[in-house]
Structures are given as C-alpha cells and as structure tokens.
Design a protein that fits this description.
Blueprint: H1 3-24, H2 29-39, H3 41-50, H4 59-82, H5 85-106, H6 114-132, H7 140-167, H8 170-192, H9 196-203, H10 205-226, H11 231-238, H12 241-251, H13 259-277
C-alpha cells in the first residue's frame, strides 16, 4: 500500500468518525440514520454526472451494494436499540476486517503476506477489545445484532471492492450505489414514521447536510482505494475510524477515556504501523 493510498484511507477514517459523532449525538437514531442515507443522494448524483460512466458489467455489483448497505443500516439500527453504542459499534466494525481477510484469501485467492494478515488481526483485536472491555454484562441480543452488522459490513466491502474494479470508475460506481441506496432506506424510514423523510432537513440538519456529504466522501475514498490496494487491507485501515472517534469524544466532547480504551487504541495503532510497513 502506497503512502498516497494509506493517507487517503486515514482521511476517510477521520471523516467517518466525524459524521458518526454527529449522528450518534442525536436522540432520534432513525432520523439521524435516514438523514445520512437520504443525504447521500445529492453527492451521489453529482458523482454520477462528473465522473466517467461505469462499465455496464458493474450494474449487478451496484445492485448488490444497494441491498447490502440497506441490510447494514437496518441491523445497525436494531443493534443500537438493543445495546449501547460503546458495546455495539466496536463489535460490528472490528469483526468486519477479519471476515474480509478470511474471504479474500480463501475465496478470492488474494495473496496476503503473513505480516499483512497479522496487521489486520492486530487492528481487529484492538477495535474489538474496545467493545469487549465495556463494563457490565453484555446483552446477547445486542452482541448478535452487532456481529450480523459486521457480516453486512464485510459483505458490502467485498461487493464494492470487486464492483469498483469491474466498473472502471470507482467514484461513479459508489455514486450510483449511494443515489439508488437512498430510495430503499428512505421508503423504510417513511414506513416506520410517515412524513419523516420530508422533515429530515429540519429534524436532523447536521446529519442531512453535513453527515451525508462527509459519509459519502469518506466511503468514496475507500471505494477508490479498493482499486489501488488489497480490499482486506483497506477495510482494516478504514476501521481505525474508531480511534478518531475516541479522540473526538475525549478532546471535543469531553468524554471520559479509561485505561482499557487507551490500551485498545494503542493495540490498534500498532496494527496500523504493521500494515503500513508490511510486505
């Protein structure tokens, strides 16, 4: 992985942490999630217009991406209803890199060195430990929902990684996925709460205007990176967004950071260093 790709994915991780800080601060998780998903439509449409068109062979992958992102959002909402953010989010994001690495090597035949696999494992261990170190008894239903969410994250990462390569235009590929993906989640949110979609700019303006653009930009960078480096390595590096989230929480939101989280962050950063210099 070159320095350009490495730093670009870290920027995407920072943007990802930023919009999550906006959304997680909302007491109305459905409105926040819907605002982010529907907010993707504008930057997605612009990407489709401004970047080269995708190869027609990419359309099945775009359809798969839309379906998997919808499943991810649905199960993430379920996990948030069943458990706390500090329990659910690290389990979901930390399990995904392991699943992507396993599928990439066993099914796709990606050639990852022992050091690269070790870097992915260390990053995943650091992220997972943030959730596992949480005090109090875990809710089994919340843990199950979080792990299913992790499966969806791994699945859409693989779908988007392969699809972006097939498309020949990775940003336009994600532009179509984001533009079309706003429809099913918007319909779902409208069914759950009639009239919600039209009220999103007022109910969740930060998530709708800022979060949608930040989230789109972050993942567009990641989809481009999928065409430049192994999908498993990009996925693992992207999930370091949780480290940025902890820093934002501590420095901006003045949240308490205990010794266990500091240790988990250190482990994650060791994994990042291994990944950068692994061959």
């Amino acid at each position: 992985m070159t320095w350009t790709v490495f730093l670009a994915v870290l920027l995407a991780a920072l943007l990802h942490a930023g919009w999550n800080a906006v959304v997680k601060g909302s007491s109305d998780k459905l409105a926040g999630m819907a605002a982010m998903a529907v907010g993707h439509a504008v930057p997605g449409g612009l990407a489709v217009l401004l970047f080269p068109p995708v190869d027609p062979a990419a359309w099945p992958w775009i359809a798969g991406s839309v379906a998997l992102h919808f499943g991810y959002l649905r199960f993430l909402l379920l996990a948030y209803r069943l458990g706390d953010l500090s329990e659910v989010y690290p389990l979901a994001r930390g399990s995904a890199p392991l699943l992507v690495a396993l599928f990439s090597t066993v099914v796709l035949g990606s050639a990852l060195s022992g050091m690269q696999l070790a870097a992915v494992a260390v990053i995943a261990a650091g992220i997972l430990s943030i959730g596992l170190a949480r005090r109090g008894r875990a809710n089994p239903s919340a843990v199950a929902a979080a792990l299913v969410t992790g499966v969806f994250i791994a699945a859409y990462s693989l779908m988007d990684g392969v699809g972006a390569r097939v498309s020949g235009s990775p940003v336009a590929f994600f532009g179509w996925a984001a533009l079309l993906g706003a429809i099913p989640f918007g319909l779902y949110a409208e069914r759950r709460r009639p009239g919600l979609v039209l009220r999103l700019p007022r109910l969740a303006p930060a998530a709708f205007f800022g979060g949608g653009w930040a989230s789109f930009t972050a993942y567009a960078i990641v989809v481009w990176a999928f065409t430049q480096a192994p999908i498993a390595l990009v996925t693992a590096l992207r999930e370091t967004s949780i480290v940025f989230a902890l820093l934002i929480g501590a420095l901006v939101l003045r949240e308490r950071v205990d010794l266990a989280r500091i240790a988990s962050t250190f482990v994650t950063l060791v994994g990042v260093a291994l990944l950068r210099f692994a061959r």
